[in-house]
Amino acid sequence: MRRFRELRVHPDLLKRIDTAAEEMGITMTALVEGLLERYLLRRDAKSRDDTDRRSFERHPIRLPGVVYVTEPDGHYGRYQPVELHDISLNGVGFRMPPNAELDMRLADAEFEVIFRLDDSNPPVRMRCRSTRNERGKGATRVGASFIGGDAASHALMERYFVQ
């Protein structure tokens, strides 16, 4: 490996990179190289095929999850079991049994999706907004963008995708 230029990084960002690398048990160099390599691969792939507008690569996955939707009056909510079928750093795709009332509410409102990436970590809780809602035979497929979540959930997601 040759060094061509000096890279200057803001001290706060450097500390965050160091902390993330330490948590993952890898060097800062390995973490930064991995992130940059993935970014450049995605950028190159996107320039070849501009039909996909996603910022981050979608990963196929089969995980059980739950969607929590607040009732229109805002006082109560409803949990709906779902099966996650793909995930990225900025969104998720899932299937659920068809339910006309819930389908309409998911299309118009924010909701929370809750799932576990593995058994050794706590559940991930992310606020979402539906970007796609397709009702089919036996299931409704929903694509959603993440619009919020707690810091611990974001950290779990980042760790999952960097590994």
TrEMBL record:
<feature type="domain" description="PilZ">
    <location>
        <begin position="52"/>
        <end position="161"/>
    </location>
</feature>
<dbReference type="Pfam" id="PF07238">
    <property type="entry name" value="PilZ"/>
</dbReference>
<dbReference type="InterPro" id="IPR009875">
    <property type="entry name" value="PilZ_domain"/>
</dbReference>
<protein>
    <submittedName>
        <fullName>PilZ domain-containing protein</fullName>
    </submittedName>
</protein>
